[in-house]
Amino acid sequence: MHGDLRGPLRVASSDEGVDKDGPLAGAAFRGAGTIKLTSPDSSGDRRDEAGDGVHSADTSPRGRRDSSSRHTQPRSVRMRCRTTFALLTSLTSVVAAIAPTISASAAPSATGAAHGQKAVCAQAPVGRARCFAHVQTHSDGVTPNATTSYTSGYAPADLVAAYSIPRNRSKNTIAIVDAFASPTAQADLNTYRTRFGWGAVTIKQVNQIGGTSLPAGDTGWGQEEALDLDMASAACPTCAIVYVGANSASFADLSAAVNTAAAKGATVISNSYGGSEYSGEVSAQEAYNHPGVAVTVSSGDSGYGAQFPASSQYVVDVGGTNLARSSTPRGFTETTWSGGGSGCSAYITKPSWQHDPSCVRRMGTDVSAVADPNTGVAVHDSYGSTGGANWLVFGGTSVAAPLVGGMYAVAGVTSAYPAATLYATGASLYDVVAGSNGNCRRGAAYYCQAGTGYDGPTGNGTPNGVASLH
Predict the structure, then answer these.
(1) Contact between residue 205 and residue 214 where contact means Cβ atoms under 8 Å apart
(2) 115-469 has which fold?
(3) Burial of 8 (0-12, 13-18, 19+ CB in 10 A)
């Protein structure tokens, strides 16, 4: 071990996730069974967040010891004693911190009600994606907050009001790309549309190579599909919708599906999934390179940290907010959702239109919208529900990507790479200035902290009418 053990405890193993809001805020969980202790003095093998690859050891006074002040026991005995004592103390702190988190997972909603949340897709290994949908639950963090009729969650009219979305009867095509296919997608979307005053619509559903034989169903991804279809319709109820289902959640299959969506003439391609960055993403991102098409991608659901394909230089990386009603002239206020992704890519070249000061490669995000499950949206899904309780409340940046995508369909795409335009028109967006999605190095607070102007968690802000996207 390097340095002392008086700093924060980091719990690590093979599958990564982060406790953002609980008593272990900032601790990374990478699976079960392995505990790694680090401190601010630690000089372990870490990738520098700015992308410069520098790893520096601790040379501060706190990292050094004056030999004259030490006891006279052999050095090996002293080190073993200090290490054992620090390990026991740290483990005791972890147990004390985890216990209340397990028993009280609920968080207050914007209306004061206590809710929990859970991801509907499991963690995925490198080279594969997970969907980023989170369903709102009761306070137990397990049972979905489901009802037999619409009772809660933002309705389309709320989203129209929050983001000043015009109703211009656009006929552009929105493609939704996910893994697998829900057998109830068509019926669920039409139930949603009927409840909110629109007529039925026919979805064109194809597989990753454009054929009509759809892939197998998957409950979690099926809920993601229902969410994406509802949000696309909420933003643009007159748009045509194409659903392209990949055979699996591998990036190879999802990339093939994205290319098929572009070949089908989509104006917008929405992608509500992602996974850990990996070296192969530099070439894999070419599947998302479709000039003149708005390719929107969810930034992630594990808080601070870059995800692929959101990190691609060709896409619109969409972050997440907490959207709460207020007495302001707008009628809503927004802060950063703690679960949304952001960060400096480890691999993707910085596009010419980004000029933030610290990240030398692609920085995420570009824009953001509602994502916090505690201020979530209404969704109709009969595939992943039981007992006829098919109305649920969803969050995650899986809400934000198709919602912003639908707004691009209303606006029309006027540039080769729509993300670039956001950096020229940022002043017309709603600036999100408060909140954080995790811990990032002190020299680049904007990586994880909202503030005036551009920041990582919310990008240039949230849409203020579709003109703000041009």
Answers:
(1) yes
(2) Rossmann fold (3.40.50)
(3) middle
Nearest Cα to Cα of residue 40 among 14, 12, 5, 73: 5
Amino acid (1-letter code) at residue 82:
R
Judge contact between 222 and 384, C-beta under 8 A: yes
How many other β-carbons are positioned within 10 Å of the β-carbon of residue 428?
Answer: 17
- The number of residues making up the chain comes to 470
3 state SS of 256: helix
Alpha carbon distance 312, 317 (integer Å): 8
Residues 169-187 as b or e (16 or more Cβ within 10 Å = b): ebebbbbbbbbbbbebbbe
Strands 367-370 and 316-325: parallel
pTM of the full structure: 0.78
Task: Name the DSSP letter for residue 414.
Answer: -
Query: Burial of 283 by CB count in 10 Å (0-12 exposed, 13-18 middle, 19+ buried)?
Result: exposed
For the ranges 74-78, 88-92, 176-180, 184-188, which has the lowest average pLDDT? 88-92
Residue-wise pLDDT tens digits, 379-429: 999 999 999 999 999 999 999 999 999 999 999 999 999 999 999 877 799
Q: How far is CA 232 from CA 156, 193, 228, 302, 379, in A?
A: 10, 11, 6, 23, 12
Q: What single letter denotes the amino acid at residue 286? A: E
Q: Quickly count: other Cβ atoms within 10 Å of residue 75's Cβ.
A: 9
What residue spans define the domains of the chain?
Answer: 9-54+63-104, 115-469
